[in-house]
Amino acid sequence: MAAAPASRFQIIPLVGILCLVYTVSQFLRSSTGVIAPNLAGDLGLEPEGLGILSGAFFLSFALAQIPVGILLDRYGARITMLCAIGIAILGCFVFAMARGEAGLTLARILMGLGCSAMLMGPLMIYRWWFAPEKFAMLSGLQISIGTLGALMATAPLAYATEMFGWRESFVGAGVITLGLAIAMAFIARDTPPGTVVPERPRETLRQSFGGIFEAMRWPGVLQLFIMISTGYASFAAIQTLWASPYLADVHGLDLSARGHVLLGITGGQVIGLLLWGYAEKIFGSIKKPILFGAALSASMLALLAMLDEPPLALVTGIFILFGLNAGYTPLLLAHGRLLFPDRLAGRGITLLNFGNMAGVFVLQVMTGALIGTMQRAGVEVDVSYRLTFAALALGLVAALACYATISDMSSRNVKTG
């Protein structure tokens, strides 16, 4: 069904508020990175605790993907997103009041649940408001603008924490999110005015899960699932968790200085997302740029592992390039859209997005346990981080070797059905 025409006075506020709401998701997922040493100092958290704390967001986000998909189909994006945002706001306030690791972890779980619809919801709305040929552009715009939220979780969050404290900063984040939710309630609609949405037969829960199991058995999905569970996760382990403690423990950077380095990492990611969006067109395939990007990320992690007492300027440069290169990771979801036929596309992408976020949880918990074990065993602090970088590089190479066996595809010759 063709999208109904809408005026720019309807479209601009709609796209604007949906992008702003998504910045909340990016901010909250990255927010423990710059303040991790502060949390450890104030509440006595060990590296294992920091790994679980940061990863809890990604695990709850991942587990929520399947019910979110069902809710979007049954009740629409606007209602689903408003309910989810309410949970995210609660998570901000619980985080601000937490007195220990359990309270912080509960807050992160609530944040993950609350942010689980902030990307898929807008994409569902765009499907009805815009012509199909504009969908890819809007998806890229949504992700690029949303990543500005991750920028706010770097130097700006460090500054707010120095000025007011991390608890007060999260109260402020909750209040701002509440304001965005109210604005979205007035602005956003699932369909343009006058659009009649055709009734579709609702699947039973058994049928819905049956489609997921079919997607799990689809040729090539195992290789793609392994790669997507490792690609973004290896970047997120650095950006949202270990970069800040590494800079504090090895290079002696204070909160403000760490925030500026993380700003460089995330700023590189924002630019990379825009540049890598043209990769399929340049390479003429979806597989080749993913192979190139993953190999480059693994090389940079290996370089960080090999360098003994590297100067801060060199480390900062590698981190920024690492963020710039991370723009290849959304191509994995694009490969998933090409891999599955139309009738399985939604559930297939949901399955891959589950792996995308669950992989972050697994890697963050594993690296936290690795660093904690080495430090208790008396391994020097810088060596423990270098071995962690090496482990991330090896995991990425292993996933890359598995992904290399998948069939190549291109949006120019993919068949639907």
Describe the structure using short key phrases.
417 residues; 18 helices; globular; mainly alpha
Describe the structure.
The chain has 417 residues and is mainly alpha-helical. 80% of the residues lie in helices and 0% in strands. The chain has 18 helices and no strands. Helix 10 crosses helix 17 (342-376) and helix 11 (221-251) packs parallel to helix 17. The longest helix has 36 residues, at 8-43. The radius of gyration is 21 Å and the shape is globular. The protein starts with 7 loop residues before the first helix and ends in a 14-residue tail after the last helix.
**Runs with pLDDT <50, length 5+?**
none
Rg, Cα atoms, Å? 21 Å
How many beta-strand runs?
A: 0
Shape: globular
Into which percent range does the helicity of residues fall? over 70%
First-residue to last-residue Cα separation: 17 Å
β-strand percent reads under 5%
Count of individual helical segments? 18
**Largest beta-sheet details:** none
What structural category do the secondary elements indicate? mainly alpha
Mean pLDDT: 87
Strand-and-helix sequence, N→C?
HHHHHHHHHHHHHHHHHH
Q: In a nutshell, what does this entry contain?
A:
The protein is mainly α.
What are the SSEs and their pairings?
Layout: H1 8-43, H2 47-75, H3 77-97, H4 101-115, H5 120-129, H6 135-146, H7 148-152, H8 155-164, H9 166-187, H10 205-216, H11 221-251, H12 255-276, H13 279-283, H14 287-306, H15 312-325, H16 330-339, H17 342-376, H18 381-403
